[in-house]
Design goal:
about 300 residues, D-Maltodextrin-Binding Protein, domain 2, 7-stranded mixed beta sheet, two-stranded antiparallel ribbon, 12 helices, about 20% strand
Length: about 300
């Protein structure tokens, strides 16, 4: 079954039995035979072979989701057995690009360093990719800026954040207390890509006040938050980013964060994991450390305001 699953997943990715055979160091007839065996066992046609390239049928798309889950579970089973023998625990955590720029990665690193037998692997992906990887057990948990709707998952609220307008310390706007929509329309905007969590939240709030990004001057769209902050710091434009993603630059006086009138863009950060996750003490320990980090950050902010 494992060999057939491997051939099926690879064929779905390459869309070609010959390329699949080459990738798996098999003959093309062997791959074809394995796929036929799997189709017979499933009682369904998994590939449409009528075109130049093979394509998944609707049944094949369903099967692929479970095949990837089976493959991931098999690999995790082998790894967990080895870790049990070595008295180790491995955790795979997924974070979004926004989380990568705030305290999440730092807290995960600190938690791992304080736990002698724990090794954490962090993967950074868009939110929908993280949910998909959770679903197939490729991840143990994910930290995302959205409460999941999938009933397979459990979620814990970690933090509340907000989007702000970020400008260079050298910008003529840096001395302002706040901005309005008309101010933004006069500026060059450097934004996250369409579909990103930050961009989607911004667009939804603009829609709520009958505005659209088509009315603004967007000069650059970038997926990498570090690149956006660097461009803003050099006063090449302004941006809309999560305040937490810019805290280091704000503390150092390199960037200035300004609220925007009529745009209260609050966002929540959740820890999401499977209901059958078998190490609740890891979840509890990480949440406690993260919340301690949030409390420390809030205390420092109050002390600075005094």
């Amino acid at each position: 079954m494992s060999d057939r699953i491997d051939s099926f997943i690879m064929a779905a990715e390459t869309k070609n039995f010959t390329k699949t055979a080459k990738q798996l160091c098999l003959t093309q007839p062997a791959v074809t035979h394995q796929i036929l065996q799997l189709e017979e066992e499933m009682g369904a046609k998994l590939f449409d072979r009528s075109g130049k390239h093979i394509a998944l049928t609707e049944e094949g798309k369903v099967a692929l989701k479970y095949a990837r889950r089976i493959k991931a579970l098999e690999e995790r089973m082998k790894q967990d057995i080895m870790n049990n023998r070595l008295h180790k625990t491995e955790l795979k955590a997924g974070i979004t690009h926004t989380s990568e720029s705030n305290d999440v990665a730092e807290v995960l690193a600190r938690y791992s360093s304080e736990s002698a037998a724990l090794n954490i692997t962090i993967l950074t992906e868009p939110i929908q990719k993280l949910y998909s990887m959770l679903d197939t057990y490729e991840l143990d948990m994910a930290i995302v800026e959205e409460k999941p709707h999938n009933t397979k998952f459990t979620s814990i609220l970690l933090d509340t954040d907000c989007l702000v307008c970020v400008v260079s310390a050298d910008s003529r706007l840096a001395n302002r207390k706040r901005l309005n929509i008309q101010d933004l329309k006069k500026e060059k905007l450097i934004l996250r890509l369409p579909g990103s969590e930050t961009r989607t939240l911004l667009e939804s709030h603009l829609l709520g006040i009958h505005e659209s990004l088509s009315n603004f001057r967007i000069i650059l769209e970038v997926d990498n938050i570090a690149t956006i902050k660097n461009c803003v710091r050099k006063n090449l434009g302004i941006s809309i980013l999560a305040r937490s993603a810019c805290m280091s630059e704000i503390r150092k006086g390199k960037l200035v964060a300004l609220p925007i009138d009529n745009l209260n863009m609050t966002r929540e950060t959740y820890l999401v994991y499977h209901k059958d996750f078998d190490s609740p003490e890891i979840i509890k320990g990480f949440v406690q450390l993260y919340q301690k980090n949030v409390a420390t950050r809030a205390t420092k902010k109050l002390e600075k305001m005094k």
